[in-house]
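Folding Problem: From Residues to Backbone Shape
Fields: amino acid sequence; protein backbone structure tokens
RECORD BEGINS BELOW THIS LINE
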Amino acid sequence: MVTIKNKETLFFQHLDFLPTPALIGREDKCNKRAKILFVNKAFINTIGYQVTDIPDHLSFISRAYPDINYRHEVINSWSSRISQLSRRKTSIIQLCSRVFCKDQQYRWFDIRTELKSTIDKGVVIVLFNNIDKAKMEALQYAKLSRTDPLTKLANRRYIQHVLQQETLHQPKDYQSFSLVMADIDFFKTINDRFGHSCGDYVIKTVAKIITQNTRKIDVVARWGGEEYLLLLPKTNTTEARIVVKKIMKHLHEYHFIWEGKRFNVTLTYGITQYRRAEETNETIKRADLCLYQGKEQGRDCIVTDGVLEVWGD
């Protein structure tokens, strides 16, 4: 006669040959923890944890998701999917998440489980399909699609998307943002004098100086050519000028060197503030107009909605 225990052992042995990482748990209603009964060889080889490392589901969750914010995000996603089961014919739940493995590496998995187990009451099988390579490639592609290849700043398309998102929801206490359009002065002269490789060096170095002198909440993008667009959230034009003056100061102190020759680089800046309910293209046009006025006034200056401020004022 084959006992339940023998059937369970036999099933575990078969599961050990499965190439997909698998975990089996059994619900324990007394302490509200699902006991981990078994993990197969593929699970140990890929994720690393053995049953002794993760005796129950809470132990696994705390190890697999050490970042508490991400852990809550994953738990909420699972809870949401479980609550949706009553409206669906299937009892299978699927979730993609990043798991912290025993070898201290994060890997992406497509995690699937069926709540209505056909094996035994309260028993749940969880499968972990390793999608790390595909996910990392997708993330890299997404990053490349929004990044300028030369400067590694946000590109024009991405900052336009961010601007649209910024204006979607405007509560009563909404704090507007400022835009800064900046352009390298006499860039053509630099290219003509030193060559296009030097021009690329200047564009990259200016991008670095701007990034180092802006805040984490700000978005700095290469708008095109030698132009940059800065999105400064929750910032009025007075505060934006403080940010720009900081950039100007560091740029004036920096000495560019190309093939042993030392030279200085300046920028002209146009600043404006977003006006509630206007199209973001209008805000950009206004910043660009301020920039143009600065170029007309002699460069290396700031124009804020038509008001000129030269370096040193």
Q: What stands out?
A: The chain has a mean pLDDT of 89.
